[in-house]
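A quick aside before the break. I want you to see a complete sequence-to-structure record at least once, exactly as it would be stored in a machine-readable document. Don't worry about memorizing anything.
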Amino acid sequence: MTRARRSAALPRQADVSWWMEEARADPALEAPKCPPLRGSTAADVVILGGGYTGLWTSWFLLEREPALDIVLLEADERCGSGPSGRNGGFCYGMWEDLPALVRLLGDDDALRMARAAERSVDELERWLVEHDVDAWFTRAGHLTVATSPAQDGAWHELLAEAARLGVAEGRFRELDAGAVRDRCASPVFRGGFFQPAGATLQPARLALGLRRELLHRGVRIFEGTAAARVAAGPPVLVQTPDGDVTADHGVLGLGAWTASLPRFHRTIVPRGTYIVLTEPAPERLEEIGWTGGEGIGDLRTALHYLRTTPDGRIAFGAAASTAGVGTGLGPRLRYHERSIVTLVDDFRRFFPSWADVGIEAAWGGPMDVTTSHQPFFGTLPGGALHYGAGFTGGGVGPCHLGGRILAGLTLGADDADTSLPLVHREPGRFPPEPFLSAGAALAQGAIVRVDEAEDRGGRPDPLTRFVAGLPRRLGYELGP
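That is the input. The structure line, written in tokens, reads:
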């Protein structure tokens, strides 16, 4: 059966992610929708974006200055409905990016960033316990595996760099194919490595838990309120369709939508990523031995990422061939039919014994990809408007650190967070238009075609390989 014919049986397109649907059904987490902004108001700080970056920034601002008047604007109908409530729920630091961090920052600063991000995972876990937020936090480790011969040994650079810097012990453990399949018996799994500190969580539960606690602390949240214009000030002025906010300081926590602002148009390329979720089948998980709760990812450039849920489902995701630039963040990046069909096919290839288990839902959206594969933080000229973005799909843990950084920048602090090496570092820039839009689409499509050819055990044609490799030849930490 062709992919076109199979598309008639595509899983339900969730209006929001299944994670958000599940979390909103919990009375302990769901609170009434906050109204949109009507009229003019003033605040000490205005925050644009109700995802993890904006929510954690609000939290850490109030930790330092409890009397602050904070206004948070969220364009969607509920905080966390964007990437923060629809990602895979993998919570780890930045150790997997160690070689890229070293190339960008040097040895000492790379270690500073990785250690700071690692601490955030521990602090996030403590926060969930202290505030009685059941986000299904499971510290079962993260397993990275080769799923084709082309991926074999792709982890050697990371492990060698960690060993050279003296940080491998207790953080990485290399596994052969047998040890990998003891944890999860997929016929495509080969060798890989294990990170014991990795965790998974229910991402929308974390977002709604943060929202609940911030409302209790007096943050004025306006949902369904998009920013129409932002003036960096001072003071910062944010105009919305039906009102405006004036504040001493502002924070941009917009994720992929940061690319719609002229200042950041060439620093971020939004790229689609999608997830399908099975019906519950706990007995099938027992049959394949995947009962430890490990998060799993492979070593493709457009990687697959997969994890289980407490009721015995598998969530299976991947970066896709869709890319948008600037304001190109429309419906195609939220649900791309060809990408969903391919994702279902890949899931069936990974787990053929699940052939009769239904796929309940599918969803997706953009992530904010940077040239360095790392986030960036800073302050615009004038000193009143601060920004953080570019988590490139790995922001569950680092967004917590990002909130600490942005709170410190807003309050003018000179501390361990605001002096981290990714702060005030000018982000890399992609080529100007028209090369940016065309190049992003061509390169990402070629990257996915290379991955798909290697998944089948074949070799991509030379032209596809050449185009897929262009970003890395241009000095970006992207592509094969």
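Two observations worth writing down. The chain has two domains: 3-410, 435-473. Residues 107-130 form the longest helix (24 residues). We'll return to this after the break.
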